[in-house]
Hints:
The longest helix has 31 residues, at 2-32. The protein is mainly alpha-helical. It is built from 12 helices and 2 strands; from the N terminus they run ααααββαααααααα.
Amino acid sequence: MAFFLETLIGGLMAGMLYSLVALGFVLIYKASGVFNFAQGAMVLFAALAMARFAEWIPKWTGIDSMLLANLLAFVIAGIFMFAVAWVIERLVLRHLVNQEGATLLMATLGITYFLEGLGQTIFGSDIYKIDIGMPKDPIFMLDSVFPGGVLVNKEDVYAAAIAAALVVLLSVFFQKTTTGRALRAVADDHQAAQSIGIPLNRIWVIVWCVAGVVALVAGMIWGSKLGVQFSLTTVALRALPVVILGGLTSVPGAIIGGLIIGVGEKLSEVYLGPYVGGGIEIWFAYVLALTFLLFRPQGLFGEKIIDRV
Length: 309
């Protein structure tokens, strides 16, 4: 039972990080109808900015405190991501609204390669480290319940807590603020929102900036766990099944979908892997997503689109 709980908790922690990346997809799609294939590149670009600014700030300012240097690096990288998101929306996607889906897809693919090249030009192409002070030592929990306790990675716990806190903040932002309600109105119906005076262009800029901040937090956490390297762009591919499972238009769906896939990957690898030759963790999420595409393409919480003729 203790081993099952260890696997379950590890899956939940991984699922929260998948959800964090998937949120970027959902936010942009809800507000503008654009499936942002560049979200993975935004995560990489944000992680590179965070890692390099954290390295440069002590040299520029003489600050010895790692905490203060990381805090300043986060703020500067956040401003940087705001600027990147604003430029992308302003110069590219604003001019492609209401275009065919294939056109938008190619545009975001182009943005992906542009951001990868720009990140390499500005920040370099080495593997960098992000040290935000998260402890990496494992701990044992529930010693009194299970012999030997349940082994949990501290870093995973901290990362999941940060992801959960961001999700709560976004939920409060969407539910309680005037801008958040405007975003929800635009997501429900662009034309109706515009007819009551909500400026679509400003809303789309805000959404892209929020997605940039989400990418920064995701890049910071994944960079701390894996190191900042160009393979981070593949994290977005791991989040695609989450979006398909939860629904392209549902923020709660991104969270629940991430948890389901995270737990499913870990449990299937441990309990089914020995019977199928291993490696099931690599393809489990995609098989699950394919099943949903066949039988429930809108996902668990997505809106079912009905075309009447």
